[in-house]
Amino acid sequence: MTELEKQQAGGQTNYRAFISYSHSDKTVARWLHTELERYRLPAKFIGNSTSLGPVPKELRPIFRDQDELPASGNLGAELQNALARSLFLIVICSPSSARSKWVNEEIRQFKLLHGADKVLALIIDGTPNATPDKSEQECFAPALKFKVAAGGELTTTPSEPIAADLRSNADGKRLAKLKLISGLTGLRLDDLVQRDAARRMRTLVQISIVSLLAAVFAVGLAFYANDRRLEADAQRTIAEQESATARAVSDFLVNSFASANSAQDNPNTITARTILDRGALKISTELQEQPLVQSRLSATIALAYNNLGLFDQAIEVVDNIATNSGVKNPAAFLIKAEALQRKGELDKSMAVANYAQELSKQKKLIKYDRDSAKIRAEIARIQAIINYQLGRHEQGLQAFGRALHELENMPKPDYVEIANILQNRALLLSDAGDLEQATADLERAMSLVLNSVGKKSIRVGQISLAQAQVNFLSGNLTPALEQIAAAISNMQGILENDNPSLADALSMQGQILHAMGRLDEAKSALTQAVDIYTKAYGGRHYLSGIAEVYLGLIAGDQHDVTAALAHFDEAKLHYDAGYGEVHANHGDLLVNRATVLAAAGEIERANQDCDEGMGILVATLGEKAAFTQQLQVVCDGLKKQ
To answer: Is the model's pTM score more than 0.85?
Structure first.
């Protein structure tokens, strides 16, 4: 028997949820209360067994206190009883509620009664886990941010509330509501989203039928109207209908394909790859008279292809639709640039990113799904990543700075995207030797992601991977190994086994294990990474080159110089194909090969490799770069032998 059933059996009025809010947010609380109580679960799911018991027909009753709270220091008996008889607590999060002692007390008491896992957060304003310099923007109350001890006192251990974000630049009203309903029922969010999309499509059809009947009726009235006025009205009506049709078709197709826009889909499954291929064909052949819709959807489908590792398909759909529609969408070309970057074609990627930047500056820039500030931020982000991978650290940091400036100064910041920028900037900072700032960036990124999308998001795994890399570069191997294990665990629960993101984590795990002297384990992880990269990218890739360098070092440590040199040769071939020109990693490869040769007694060849490698590093990174100086110390040590 579920908790709600036990309450009902005892003759008590039970509540699916208790809404906790500051009375300055009462408009949102009233809206949420109404939406949840009138929501009817799809018939397909009613009665299905979940962790919360059978799925009900409806969520009502939901408790919302409609009176101002008393001036005393305690919650009233009615509120305490309602808290005790509520299965969930929904906290409406804003700077106002974060400062409310009553909201904080309701959260504290509910956690004592029912545990933290039954607390759901709905962000409407402010910043979760705001930094000290922006504390006035904090939207999480203390009892929401931290765990509550058995005795009721607040601890300093961070809590990880499940959060939905009502704001239009985040989840928006529809998805935020469905996220809460998913939490309240135990149903999968994907199932609810798909049923909601189907319901909306039926509504569109019904609206179309009604509109058609209205148009027929209007024709009958036309005989009694003034000809000139009728013509003007008709033209306006046609324009409005065309606009509405474009929005309706666009929204429908976006909803149809958005489920494939996730790194956790397998490119070989019919629910992802097949739907995308059919969608790409459909927008090319069936929407020829709606070029703006074609262009918008080309970006959506290309992004889904990218997230599935299907980079050639992403590039193809962007190019085809741009040619057929005549519309040059900067958002679509950004996705093409990212596909090229992830393929390792960095020069081509930078050229496309720069082209997208030029498109975004045009006065007739069409406002697709994102405003101009976000487009500028995304352009800066991809330019920063390419510069980082080309070893241009200063240009990369400048571009990341532009991206953060654009995102943080938006009226409604996209916190997940800010976290993404911070994560990428941290890797560049760590390469440049600024490990303190890199660590701070990653801590902030993790906080933003946990409070925006939860701990089961692939983004949590990606940030854990970045944290492991920074600790690895700092020489903190034990925490690095723990973080990379957490990253791999997260990714294996979400991704297919041949996803290149998993290979990134395995490659880093191999590097850490090598540094710890656990050579066989390191070799296994790195070999798996190379196998995945080769399959995912269809051949040579600079990421395979990085793994091959470490396999060469392992072979050298095991006194197999022939195998080591073979791995280094493979690494160079990968670098040549991926970078297209001399890159800092070519210099790193030569210095690493020099260490193996020196250990084998071939000092002259080792010194030659060191000289050549350091020349490359100085030319690409600069003499004062932290990485250049670190490897110079290695070469100086070899020359003293």
So the answer is: no
